[in-house]
UniProtKB/TrEMBL annotation:
<keyword id="KW-0030">Aminoacyl-tRNA synthetase</keyword>
<dbReference type="InterPro" id="IPR006195">
    <property type="entry name" value="aa-tRNA-synth_II"/>
</dbReference>
<dbReference type="GO" id="GO:0005737">
    <property type="term" value="C:cytoplasm"/>
</dbReference>
<dbReference type="InterPro" id="IPR004188">
    <property type="entry name" value="Phe-tRNA_ligase_II_N"/>
</dbReference>
<dbReference type="Pfam" id="PF02912">
    <property type="entry name" value="Phe_tRNA-synt_N"/>
</dbReference>
<feature type="domain" description="Aminoacyl-transfer RNA synthetases class-II family profile">
    <location>
        <begin position="110"/>
        <end position="311"/>
    </location>
</feature>
<dbReference type="GO" id="GO:0005524">
    <property type="term" value="F:ATP binding"/>
</dbReference>
<keyword id="KW-0067">ATP-binding</keyword>
<dbReference type="GO" id="GO:0004826">
    <property type="term" value="F:phenylalanine-tRNA ligase activity"/>
</dbReference>
<dbReference type="InterPro" id="IPR010978">
    <property type="entry name" value="tRNA-bd_arm"/>
</dbReference>
<dbReference type="InterPro" id="IPR002319">
    <property type="entry name" value="Phenylalanyl-tRNA_Synthase"/>
</dbReference>
<keyword id="KW-0648">Protein biosynthesis</keyword>
<keyword id="KW-0436">Ligase</keyword>
<dbReference type="InterPro" id="IPR045864">
    <property type="entry name" value="aa-tRNA-synth_II/BPL/LPL"/>
</dbReference>
<dbReference type="GO" id="GO:0000049">
    <property type="term" value="F:tRNA binding"/>
</dbReference>
<protein>
    <recommendedName>
        <fullName>phenylalanine--tRNA ligase</fullName>
        <ecNumber>6.1.1.20</ecNumber>
    </recommendedName>
</protein>
<keyword id="KW-0547">Nucleotide-binding</keyword>
Length: 334
């Protein structure tokens, strides 16, 4: 009888394991533990054993009964939790995904481009990794020329650089062979520089206008137009003499400080803030691009997107490198 009880227990285990619903479980319970179930059949057999054995067998049978009850309730819990995982209410409000937004510098590049587009400039794209030729040589800086040092350039192969400025796009654009040229090239640049106003990775926007009879007056007009539209109507620009190898004459461009309005404060120290470089395209550069400098002239300018944006009066960013630190507390403000 003890063996029969063990068999019954393993039978019960097997069918309980296979049960797929509450209904299956109820049928199993009735089959094993119900009034006419297999357990009661065995219990009835106790009447035919000797009183000496009856106590021990009764204990074994009760133990088996309890185990079957335990197996049934455990399986019932499993089935319940599995079905609650499947439960899906389409009317429940969904969990909103965390949406990001564009980087501050992407907004800046778009805003800058919008302003130049209104006066006929077209956005073009040129390589951010380019040959030494377009970054320097075609810009009147032959190999070994000391002027190259200023650009603190990352070389990634003998003749290949991470462009230290967007001016590499000048001769590339001329080589396309159309005139007049009125382009804005906005791209990522790299230099071996890192401090509060210099980042190893930064962006520049480069303007190039080439046509017949282009003069410094046109350059000044375009810069003034940009400064007023980007910074506000009260702002003015000035050209300060400088020396770039690819423009002649060359200038640094300053804009009046937005904090003090040009009277001088601790931020600008003198009323003016530097925006970037500019100048009339050097005849050698025009020739490198296949353009005859006796017939055509042009101006170019190249400014940092980050610095130009940081100079907006309402933005006070103490360290340019914070733009690229992936600090959400900072980035989520914009
Ligand atoms: C140039 O890069 C020239 N190619 C500009 C130019 C173009 C002159 C066309 C004439 C004609 P410069 O090295 O001064 O010039 O850089 C221009 C601007 O880029 C700077 O005023 C600054 O706004 C930005 N810039 C340069 N280096 C960094 C840097 N490491 N981090 C952030 N901004 C930078």
């Amino acid at each position: 009888m003890e063996d029969t009880t063990k068999d019954l227990l393993s039978q019960a285990q097997a069918v309980i394991n296979l049960a797929a619903s509450q209904e299956d479980l109820e049928n199993i319970r009735i089959g094993f533990l119900g009034r006419n179930g297999k357990m009661n059949e065995l219990m009835a057999g106790l009447l035919h054993v000797s009183p000496a054995q009856r106590g021990e067998l009764g204990r074994v049978l009760n133990q088996a009964k309890r185990e079957i009850e335990l197996l049934l309730s455990k399986k019932e819990e499993d089935l319940l939790s599995a079905s609650s995982n499947l439960y899906f209410d389409p009317t429940e409000p969904s969990i909103k995904p965390n949406l990001g937004h564009l980087h501050l510098i992407t907004y800046a590049a778009r805003e800058i481009m919008d302003i130049f587009e209104r006066i006929g400039f077209v956005r073009v794209r040129h390589p951010e990794i380019d040959s030494d030729y377009y970054a320097f040589e075609a810009l009147n800086m032959p190999a070994g020329h000391p002027a190259r040092d200023e650009w603190e350039t990352f070389y990634i192969a003998d003749n290949l650089v991470i462009t230290p400025h967007t001016s590499n796009g000048q001769v590339r654009e001329m080589e396309k062979g159309y005139l007049p040229i009125k382009m804005i090239n906005i791209a990522r640049c790299g230099r071996r520089q890192s401090d509060v106003s210099h980042s190893q990775t930064f962006h520049q926007f480069e303007g190039l206008y080439i046509d017949k009879g282009v003069s410094i007056a046109n350059l000044k007009g375009v810069l003034e137009y940009f400064a007023r539209n980007f910074y506000g109507s009260g702002r003015q620009t000035r050209l300060r003499p400088y020396d770039f190898r690819f423009t002649e004459p060359s200038f640094e461009v300053d804009v009046t400080c937005g904090l003090c309005g040009g009277s001088g404060c601790s931020f600008c120290k003198g009323g003016w803030l530097e925006l970037g470089g500019a100048g009339m395209v050097h005849p050698k550069v025009l020739r490198a691009g296949g353009i005859d400098p006796r017939k055509y002239s042009g101006f170019a300018f190249g400014w940092g997107v980050e610095r130009t944006y940081m100079m907006k009066a309402e933005l006070s960013i103490p360290d340019i490198r914070i733009l690229y630190k992936n600090d959400l507390n900072f980035l989520e403000q914009f």
